[in-house]
Amino acid sequence: MIRHLHNKLISKEFSATELTKQYLERIEKFDQKICAFLTVTAKSALDQARAVDEKIACGEKIGLLAGLPAAIKDNIATRGVKTTAASRILENYVPPFDATVIELLRARDFVMLGKTNLDEFAHGSSTENSAFWTTRNPWDLTRVPGGSSGGSAAAVVSGMAVYALGTDTGGSIRQPASYCGLVGLKPTYGLCSRYGLIAMTSSTDVPGFLTKRVEDAAYLLSALAGRDPKDATTLSCDSRDYLKAIAEPRLNGVRIGIPKEYFIEGLNKEVLNAVKGAVRILEKEGAIVKEISLPHSQYGIAVYYIVTPSEVSSNLGRFDGIRYGFSKHSDAEDLIDVYYKSRGAGFGQEAKRRIMIGTYALSSGYYDAYYKKAQKVRTLIIDNFKRAFREVDVIITPTAPDVAFKIGSKENDPLAMYLEDIFSVPVSLAGLPAISIPCGFNHENLPIGMQIIGPQLGETILLKVAAYYEGITDWHTKEPMLLTEL
C-alpha cells in the first residue's frame, strides 16, 4: 500500500495535500463511532503535506514515506503535540522533543494525522483502560480492537491512516493486529530505539508497526531500525533492507516449528483450525514443519505479571504531581498528601493495580520469592527459544487464544484479560521478533491472526515467511463491511 500510494504521488495522480484531506475526512466521518484518535492534528498534517507537494513540484526526489498520512500511538513523544499515554495524570502534557522514531519519520517527510488511543500507559489488552474513552473494533463496534495499541489498529483497518506506530510490551501490537485483521510487527528488542517512548516495562518495550501489508511493515522497519546513542539498549548491527529481503520470498527448505504447548485445551477451535490450516498451506508450498517443545512458556504469564508490575512501579514513580502532569496540591496538607491526591486522582484502576503488585514484589522479604525467581524462569524461557531455533527457522503459533471479545465482558476479571496475551508474552520476555498476520475469519466474520516468531535479529526470515503466505492468500484484502454502513 505504501509503494502504491507513493507511485501515485510521484506520477501526480493526486497530491499529498489531497491524500491527507481524504484521510482527515475519513477520520471526521468514522471516528465518532470508532474513537481511535485522542488528538487529531489536521492543520500541521496539511502543512506537512503541502511541503511534500512543493518538493514534488520542484522535481525533488521523495522517499516512500513522504506525504503518506500516519497515526501515532499516544505514548510516543511528539514535539509540540499532546502525549497523554491515555492517562489523566498526563492529560495536558506536551513534550518539547520527539521520540527517535518520530525524528526518523520527520526526516522522511511523513504526515502525522494525530495520536491514537491506548490502554493507560499501555496497561491492558483491550483499550478499555484508557482514561478518556474505549476504542471500538471496526469489524464489530460492540467488540474491543485489542490493546494496548487498539487505537492504532482501529485507525489503520478503518482506512483512517495508511499505517500506524504502536508499542509492544507483551503483545500490544500483535494482539490488536490479530483482532483487527492487520499485519502487526514487533521487532527484536533493541533493534528500534525506545527513546521518547513513555516507559511501561523497560526490559520488553518495543516500538513497532501496524500495517495492511507485510511489505509496508518491512519498509518501516528498514527506515526506523538502527543504533541510537540516546538509547543504550539499542543494538549495534548492520543496517538491512528488509524490502529487498522479501522481494522474492521462498519457502523451499524453511523449517517451521509448531510448539505443542501453544496448541492447548481452551484455545478457540476456529482459531486452532485457521492457524493449522495456514501451516498446512505453508507445508504444501515447500516448508518443513516440525513439532517442537517450549516447556517453560506455560509460566510466561506468571513471570510477565511479576516482572512487568515491578518495572511499572519504578517507571511510574516519576509521575508524582510535582514534576510531570496532573497535580492536586491546592488543598494538600503536606508533600505526602500531594502524592496521595495527585496519584490517586491521576492514575486509573489498572495502573494502580500494577503499581501495588510491583511494589509488593520488589519489597524487602518478597524480592527473592517473586522478582528474582521470575527472572530465573525468564532465563529458562529464553533458553527454550534458543534451543528451538537450533532446529527450526521460525516458530508459528496463534497470536491470541480467541477473536475480539465484547466490550465490558472482562472488565471485572483482570486475570482473564491477562490471559489474552498468553501466546505473545513469552516472545517479549525473550526479546525476540514476531509478526501477526491475518489467516482467517470465524463464523461471525471476525479476524483471526497467526503469529510467526523469529530468532533474535531474525526479521528477514520472519518477513519472508509472512510475505510468502500473504502472497498466496487473500485474508489481508478483506475489509470491514461496517464501514459502508456508518
From TrEMBL:
The keyword Nucleotide-binding applies. It comes from Candidatus Jacksonbacteria bacterium RIFCSPLOWO2_02_FULL_44_20. One of its GO terms (molecular function) is transferase activity. Allows the formation of correctly charged Gln-tRNA(Gln) through the transamidation of misacylated Glu-tRNA(Gln) in organisms which lack glutaminyl-tRNA synthetase. The reaction takes place in the presence of glutamine and ATP through an activated gamma-phospho-Glu-tRNA(Gln). It holds the Pfam family Amidase. Its EC number is 6.3.5.7. The keyword Nucleotide-binding applies. One of its GO terms (cellular component) is glutamyl-tRNA(Gln) amidotransferase complex. The active site is at residues 73, 148, 172. One of its GO terms (biological process) is translation. Keywords: ATP-binding, Ligase, Nucleotide-binding, Protein biosynthesis, Transferase. It catalyses: L-glutamyl-tRNA(Gln) + L-glutamine + ATP + H2O = L-glutaminyl-tRNA(Gln) + L-glutamate + ADP + phosphate + H(+). Heterotrimer of A, B and C subunits. The lineage of its organism: Bacteria, Candidatus Jacksoniibacteriota. Belongs to the amidase family. GatA subfamily. This is Glutamyl-tRNA(Gln) amidotransferase subunit A. The gene is gatA.
